[in-house]
Amino acid sequence: MNVELSVREEAAHKIAVFLPNWVGDAVMATPALRNLRKQFPQSQITALHRPVIGSVLDGLDLVDRHVAISREQEKLWSTASTELIDQLQKKRFDLAILFPNSFRSAWLAWRMGAKRRVGFSRDGRGWLLTTRLTPKSRKIPNPVLDEYLRLVEAVGCQKDNRVMEQGLSEGDRVSYQKFQAQYSGFFQAVSRRYIVLNPGGAYGAAKHWPSKSFARLAQRIVADDSVGVVVLCGPAERPFAQQIVALADHPRVISVADFEVSL
Asked: What pTM was computed for the model?
C-alpha cells in the first residue's frame, strides 16, 4: 500500500544552514530561517557560519546548534580530508540550504554528505546541488531577503513572513538601557518611535551612500513630529554618523557616535 507523506511527516531530521558571510545579510536571512523553523519544528537545525555571524542569532530560537568556521578552516575545505569535514560527515545531514552563492559552500555541503543540497545555480556549482534554483538577473534590483525566502520555499516553506530579527545578549540590553538614560530627552520626545540608519560599508564608496543623502532622509523622517532617527556606527563610521547628525541639524536626529558605552 502506497502512503503519501505530508511535508511535515517527511521533514528532514537534520538540517544544515549555511549562513551569509556578512552581518547585514545574515539579518536579512532571519525571515527565511523563521519560516524554516515553522515548517520543520521538530528538526535539528545547525547553522554553519563565520564566527562573527553567530552573534546575530544569539537569544533567538531559529537554530539549535552553531558551527563557527574560521577563514583558516575555509581554506582547507577543498583538501582531501580535514577535521572539519570529518566532523560534519558524522552529523549525517538530511538537508543543506545554502544562502551564500559561493562554490566553496556548495563544495562543503557535497563533501559532508548532505542528502539534499539546495541553492542557487551559479558560478559553476550547479552539479554540486540536488535542488538548483535559477538566480534572478543582477541587472534588475531584487532584495536579497526575497532570494533567501525562495530558498526555503523550495523545501516547502511559506513566504508569509518578512520580519527581520536580531538576537540581543544581556550586555546589549544593559548598553541600550544606558543609551536610553543618556538620551532620555530624545526618547521622551519620540515615545520610542524611531528609525535606525546604519551608514558605512566594507568596500568604501562602492557601498556607502553619501552622508548628505542620509541627512536628507533623516530630515524627511522627522517631518513626522512623533518619529526620531538614531544613526548607528562602528568605530570606523563615527565621523560619518556625526556628519549625518550635523547635516540633518534636528533635535530628533541623534547617533551613537558619542555614546560613552559602545553598543
From this structure: 0.80
| Residue 260: pLDDT over 80 | no
Per-residue pLDDT reduced to its tens digit, 124-173: 999 999 999 998 887 888 889 999 999 999 999 988 889 999 888 888 88
pLDDT in tens, 162-216: 999 988 888 888 988 999 999 999 998 888 789 999 887 666 666 778 999 999 9
Q: How many CA atoms lie within 13 A of 14 on its CB side?
A: 14
Q: Give residue-wise pLDDT tens across range 62-114.
A: 999 999 887 766 665 555 457 788 888 899 999 999 999 999 899 999 999 99
Cα–Cα distances in angstroms (integers) from residue 43 to residues 40, 63, 180, in the given order: 5, 10, 39
Which residues 6+ apart lie within 8 Å of 53 measured at CB?
Answer: 19, 20, 21, 23, 26, 47
d(CA 256, CA 242): 9
The span from the CA of 47 to the CA of 251, in Å, is: 42
Q: How many CB atoms lie within 10 A of CB 260?
A: 7
Give the CA-trace dihedral at 153, 155, 158, 163, to 10 degrees.
-70
Task: Provide the pairing of β-strand 65-68 with 253-255.
Answer: unpaired
| Strands 14-18 vs 65-68: parallel, antiparallel or unpaired | unpaired
Q: How many CA atoms lie within 13 Å of 202's alpha carbon, on the beta-carbon side?
A: 5
- Dmax (CA) for the chain in angstroms is 74
Number of helices followed by number of strands (H, E) in the chain:
10, 9
